Amino acid sequence: MDRSQILLLGLPIFLFCSDILNLFTTSPPPKPSPNDHHNIHQFQTKPRQVLPQQPLQFPKQKSSTIVGGLGNIGFGSVININFCVSCSYRGTAVTMKNMLESEFPGMQVILANHPAPLPKRLLSKVVPVVQFGIIGIILAGEQIFPRLGFAAPPPWYYSLRANRFGSIASTWLFGNLIQSFLQSSGAFEVFCNGELVFSKLMEHRFPGEIELRDVVGKRLASL
Question: Where is the signal peptide (predicted)?
Answer without folding.
Answer: 1-17
